[in-house]
């Protein structure tokens, strides 16, 4: 990574259905992509800019960048020093379970505003990550439920239902099915349009309207998603690259890093080793904790790290 940039993307077995991330990026740019899970990114320093919903959104320190599943967005630094953040990525099933138990939202729950100012919730996200690092399952699970409940109550609602009504939307859905089934050797835009009985520009327009990006960008995103599943299952990065249609591992590395935020090798190592590390470090010392923060975020320069203790009884979500 570029000088000063650090990232760790991992999972904790006691938080099933949740991905975890700590990162500091300066020159990093994320291409337009989507996530199968929710994005709850807590900005600690700097500013992140991400294109979402037709315009640029600015998330600074004390705010959260919130993205619903399958929502196209980008990401880049909004200031020269970049941005530092921690993020949790709970699955739709996890969020739906929490919403059903703790909110009155009816339908599919989601976030309303993509940028939400709430320093307390920012602290909660970082405390989830610290608890996961420490192997403290009770705290990690509790804090995750508290922060998701809080954000749904303050900035949540039912997501609009996506219904395929127009002829263009139906063509786009069929094109997506073709690309999913022929990911390794996809057809050209002209050939795909011909197979679906439409013109290339009509297909391009319909696909962008339905999925927020052109077919080739959607295909890259889908390939990276499938590569993640293969890496999670233990497939070597070079083999995963060819299985999803990339020409070689460097080709996978480039796109994977621009969507996930870390190279595929580092991504796989964290998923393979994190539980062994957690077992060895169930009660880490303050020295170890500070070293982990330093490795992930860079020198703290006298700043106090975020509080990772449990919320008090008066600090209800």
TrEMBL record:
Domain named HTH araC/xylS-type is located at 173-270
What Gene3D superfamilies does this protein map onto?
A: Homeodomain-like
Which region ranges are annotated with the description Disordered? Answer: 295-317
Check the record and name the Pfam families matching this protein.
AraC_binding, HTH_18
- What Gene Ontology terms describe what this protein does at the molecular function level? DNA-binding transcription factor activity; sequence-specific DNA binding
Claim: Transcription regulation is one of the keywords in the record: yes
| Record keyword Transcription present | yes
* Keyword tags: DNA-binding, Transcription, Transcription regulation
UniProt superkingdom = Bacteria
What is the name of this protein? Transcriptional regulator
